[in-house]
Inverse folding.
């Protein structure tokens, strides 16, 4: 972590944004920074390293994280409503109970992420990598997951009502008790997936 970069951020959003405009070639290093409950809405975190940063309960709504490194970041209960996380690295990140309402996660890396109870309502997850992610009881209503990699993901009791899962890789995924009512599964790979007790797109129950 760069103490200089953290010091600029601590001066407030306006100063940070001004500094970023004046230093467009710099990719700030905030790895391991302690930003618990920070108020950072609408901030420019493009290409910033927040690797292993502590962002529990932070307000990051509508912020821009395009291409950011959030590997192993702690985002438990963080507010990421309408944030731009396109292409961001969130592998092994903690997103439990985080609010990602309408967030842009196109082509984001979420492999092995912990997102129990997270809200992904209408989020853009097209071609995102969620392999082995823990999405138990996550709210993925109307989420756009076409082409997403959900191989071996845990979606137990997840709410996927109306989700777009066309051509998604759900091989070996745990969908037990999940709600897939009105979901689009055209072309999805469900080989070896656990659908015990899940609600099918037509409202019926899967037997196995």
């Amino acid at each position: 972590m760069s103490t200089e970069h953290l010091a600029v951020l601590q001066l407030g959003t306006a100063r940070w944004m001004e500094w970023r405009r004046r230093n467009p070639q710099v990719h700030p290093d905030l790895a391991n920074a302690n930003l618990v409950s920070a108020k950072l809405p609408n901030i420019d975190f493009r290409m910033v390293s927040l690797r292993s940063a502590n962002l529990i309960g932070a307000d990051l709504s509508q912020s821009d994280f395009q291409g950011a490194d959030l590997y192993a970041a702690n985002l438990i209960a963080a507010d990421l409503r309408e944030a731009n996380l396109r292409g961001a690295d969130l592998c092994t990140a903690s997103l439990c109970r985080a609010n990602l309402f309408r967030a842009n996660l196109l082509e984001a890396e979420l492999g092995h992420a912990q997102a129990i109870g997270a809200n992904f309502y209408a989020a853009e997850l097209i071609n995102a990598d969620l392999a082995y992610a823990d999405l138990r009881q996550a709210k993925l209503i109307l989420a756009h997951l076409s082409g997403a990699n959900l191989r071996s993901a845990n979606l137990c009791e997840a709410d996927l009502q109306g989700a777009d899962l066309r051509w998604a890789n759900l091989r070996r995924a745990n969908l037990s008790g999940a709600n897939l009512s009105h979901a689009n599964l055209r072309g999805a790979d469900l080989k070896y997936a656990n659908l015990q007790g899940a609600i099918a797109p037509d409202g019926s129950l899967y037997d196995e």
